[in-house]
Design brief:
The structure holds 2 protein chains of 2 kinds. Chain A is of the alpha/beta class. Helix content of chain A is 35%, strand content 22%. Chain A has helices at residues 20-36, 48-51, 53-56, 62-75, 78-83, 95-103, 108-117, 122-148, 193-205, 219-231, 256-268, 296-305, 326-331, 344-347, 360-366, 418-421; strands at 40-43, 159-161, 183-187, 209-213, 235-238, 240-242, 252-253, 277-279, 282-287, 310-315, 334-337, 352-354, 369-371, 376-382, 391-396, 408-415, 426-431, 434-440, 442-444, 447-455, 458-464. In chain A, strand 17 (426-431) and strand 18 form a beta hairpin. Chain B is mainly beta. Chain B is built from 6 helices and 19 strands. Classes of the chains: A alpha/beta, B mainly beta. Strand 8 (277-279) of chain A pairs antiparallel with strand 16 of chain B, so a sheet runs across the interface.
Chain lengths: 465, 340
């Protein structure tokens, strides 16, 4: 049968979370490190069993088999268990034996094939859910270890996991436990604008921070990714000691001189970053309990190109139910609905709902700013409870054929919908390596307009009423 | 079929401008017979009476007893039929009318306000705003006011029908945009001045029976039982501030979506500079890299992803002394099989 038993040795980069020796070892290591003084712990190979779920059908080690029966008993209706003909009490159910007796499976290859081609089999489904459950339970255990070892009266050390959230579906590995870690640190799987927004906005909707590690093949593109992460309220690892997608390549050590101006700017302007939250004109409702809607990425691309500020509303319950705070539910006035969940109008009573396709009517209603130059990404952030606190982040995504950044001169920014912006009179432009500069904000048609004299990689426009 | 909602304006200025202030300014002119600011279902003009809909299920809820609502939302499908009825209307011949409206969607003809069989204010599918006066049961004179009407934009139009001068005058403006003001008038066909082709006591608002309903928002409707002079019409359209956009977004301050952060956890700050150093450098005399030196060079405030075997008390101390948070990495790949 499946050869992955703990006594056979460990598969590379993964351990079964149901192995009590591994759990004890991991917990002991976490506790020791916290006592030693580390301020946070990353669980790198957190997905463990899920990493082999789609390819191999999960882990079938003796510890998983031991725990699966009791899990069935605790989590499945008795009628279902009866119907599934387990051949005995659920708590002592032996999945391997059942596979052999009921499905004629006697090898790892046969099991993998059966798992891949029998998605509707209820016990196959149950076993997959058990694997998800096991991984989530392992994360909860580690959170408990960190809490138990926090110094008296002090906040506990956070738990981060290696994840880049490139899907809204909880059936994806990264999202399956998105509610448990305190934040995410992971290599960027998709560094397109759509990919970076998707990851950052999912993390935001989970009330989490995402620190991404870009693959720094091109300095200027990486600089823009760093700036965009700050513009989204997220973070980016400095390109240092970076795994480059394959262990065949040496680790990458970027030059500090290539990036230090961006990071120095973030430090110097911490007051413009730390308390600032996303401003959004529209919520995109996505169902997390189903595979990702095919309309999502084209919609995202359009909405990003139009610089419409948005948030995700993660809806549905699969392995967990994402939390939508009362403030979010009350504030969202336009929702692009990519779900078939029926009770949304009652849940978001002040919102107007739109179908999942981008159109000019919708764009006009939710468009609050227009950047005249193409290839410039804008986000809006502000401090809750503080009037006249809005800032607009502008990130330059214009590159030449050598992936070098193309500076945008006289970058016009129009503030549409005066009722949204209020009375803005002046603005201050802050950019890495450039002295702050005040510019006027002038009436322009029904709205207002300001000009950023020069946009290299990143500018923060502070609006003054 | 609760298709009529009244949306809250987002600015107090709008309340004043479209409600009481506008009305107060118009008091410089004789008081209108009919005036709806959509704050209450009552006609607060001289005649009194209530706005009704022809759908009872909607009628009870068209103006909820909630303060601050002053826009009739007629964007849902199907639209309700808003009607004001008063026997005195049948006798009104000369008249003036003011409407503040916002066409949320174009693409089909729409009637904003109408006195069946007498006159109406309407828009074509392309957004051409025109006045229509009827002079026979099936004949009408249509006069274009403007071709500039756009979706999701507020406008105010005031018209006056003056029998003695055989004129229909108008003033039109996009609130907040002085340059959009246009005034003018049309000579009426003599037949229009003859006996009324209808004697209805009904004022249809946002529709006309048998015609295309208006899809958009209304902020004010007023009717005078006499023809105002041209400067009076102009004052009416100039008396409002810019209303909020239809289906409007709240202000920026009310559009902030704060993330909830657990105060009991030492979380990264949004201004943090994070850097990883999987192993500690220099590892040997030939290693060109230096974790501490490079943390400082990158302005790092947080060391992430440093493998647990390098999380020694000395490394943690060095990092903390530099004002940098030390976070370690642990996982299966860090735990040798022997340890497990």
């Amino acid at each position: 049968m499946v050869s992955w038993k703990q006594r056979d040795g460990l598969p590379p980069g993964a351990c079964c979370v149901n192995n009590p020796r591994f759990r004890a070892s991991l917990a002991g290591s976490f506790a020791e490190l916290v006592r030693r003084g580390v301020a946070g712990m990353q669980y790198d190979d957190w997905a463990s069993n899920l990493s082999v779920l789609s390819a191999d059908g999960g882990c079938l080690c003796e510890f998983c088999i031991q725990r699966f029966g009791p899990w069935l008993k605790a989590n499945c209706p008795a009628a279902d268990l009866e119907r599934w003909k387990l051949g005995g009490p659920a708590e002592s159910f032996d999945f391997r034996r059942w596979l052999r007796a009921e499905r004629g499976i006697s090898s790892a290859a046969a099991y993998s094939k059966w798992f891949a081609t029998n998605a509707g089999d209820p016990l196959r489904q149950a076993y997959a859910r058990f694997q998800y459950f096991s991984v989530r339970e392992g994360l909860r255990t580690l959170l408990g270890v960190l809490a138990a070892n926090a110094a008296s009266g002090r906040p506990r050390a956070p738990l981060s996991v290696n994840a880049f959230l490139d899907s809204t579906s909880q059936q994806s590995k990264a999202m399956s436990a998105g509610d448990l870690p305190d934040y995410f640190v992971g290599e960027a799987a998709d560094e397109s604008l759509t990919g970076l927004f998707l990851n950052g906005k999912i993390a935001e909707a989970l009330h989490r921070t995402s620190i991404i590690s870009p693959f720094p093949f091109r300095v200027d593109r990486t600089r823009s990714a760093i700036a965009l992460q700050y513009a989204l309220g997220q973070l980016c690892l400095a390109p240092y000691d970076i795994w480059m997608q394959t262990s065949d390549l040496p680790r990458h050590f970027g030059k500090a001189a290539d990036y230090a101006d961006l990071f120095a700017f973030a430090c110097a302007n911490a007051a413009l970053l730390d308390s600032y939250e996303t401003v959004a004109a529209v919520g995109i409702a996505v169902g997390t309990a189903k595979p990702e809607d095919k309309r999502l990425r084209p919609l995202l691309q359009s909405i990003i190109e139009a610089n419409v500020p948005f948030v995700f509303l993660l809806l549905g319950r699969d392995h967990f139910e994402p939390r939508i705070t009362p403030v979010w539910a009350e504030r969202v006035r336009h929702i692009i609905n990519l779900t078939d969940i029926p009770d949304l109008p009652s849940r978001f009573s002040r919102a107007r709902f739109w179908p999942g396709e981008w159109n000019a009517d919708l764009a006009r209603r939710i468009g609050v700013l227009k950047v005249e130059a193409p290839g410039v990404v804008a986000t809006v952030r502000a401090v809750p409870g503080r009037t006249n606190s809005a800032v607009i982040h502008l990130v330059n995504y214009n590159f030449d054929e050598f992936s070098q950044s193309a500076t945008v001169a006289q970058c016009g920014v129009r503030l549409l919908q005066p009722g949204f912006w209020g009375n803005v009179r002046t603005a201050e432009i802050l950019s890495p390596g450039v002295p702050a500069r005040a510019v006027s904000v002038k009436s322009f048609g029904r709205g207002m307009r300001l000009v950023v004299p020069e946009l290299r990689t990143w500018a923060v426009v502070r609006l003054n009423g | 079929m609760s298709s009529l909602r009244f949306r809250p304006p987002t600015r107090r200025a709008f309340l004043g401008a479209c409600g009481s202030t506008a009305f107060a300014q118009s008091l410089a002119e004789p008081r209108p017979a009919i005036h709806f600011g959509f704050v209450t279902p009552a006609n607060d003009g001289a005649w009194g009476g209530d706005l009704r809909t022809m759908d009872k299920t909607v009628a009870t809820g068209i103006l909820p007893a909630e303060s601050g609502r002053s826009i009739a939302d007629l964007t849902s499908e199907p639209n309700p039929r808003l009607v004001y009825q008063d026997a005195r209307l049948a006798a009104v011949d000369d008249f003036s009318c003011l409407v503040a409206f916002n066409p949320a969607r174009l693409g089909r003809p729409m009637i904003v306000v109408a006195r069946p069989g007498r006159w109406r204010i309407q828009m074509s599918a392309a957004g051409i705003l025109s006045l229509v006066t009827a002079y026979a049961a099936s004949k009408a004179q249509s006069s274009t006011v403007t071709r500039l009407v756009d979706e999701d934009t507020w406008y105010r139009i005031a018209i006056a029908f003056d029998r003695s001068r055989r004129r229909l005058e108008f003033a039109f403006q996009q609130p907040g945009d002085l340059s959009s003001l246009s005034t003018g008038g049309f000579s009426l066909l003599p037949e229009t001045l003859g006996p009324s082709t209808g004697s209805s006591s009904v004022l249809d608002i946002g529709h006309q029976r048998g015609g295309e309903p208006f899809t958009g928002y209304l902020a004010e409707v007023a009717l005078y039982d006499h023809a105002l002079p041209a400067d009076g019409l102009r004052r009416l359209v100039e008396s409002a501030a810019t209303p909020p956009a239809a289906g409007s977004l709240p202000s920026l301050d009310a559009s902030i979506f704060p993330v909830e952060r657990d105060p009991g956890v030492l979380l990264p700050r949004r201004s943090d500079v994070t850097m990883s150093s999987r192993s500690w450098h220099p590892a040997n005399a030939n290693d060109p890299h230096d974790t501490m030196r490079d943390l400082v060079a990158f302005h790092a405030t947080r060391l992430e992803w440093c493998a647990s075997q390098y999380a020694t008390p000395e490394h943690i101390r060095q990092t903390n002394d530099a004002g940098i948070v030390f976070c370690a990495k642990e996982g299966a790949s860090d735990l040798t099989p022997g340890r497990v």
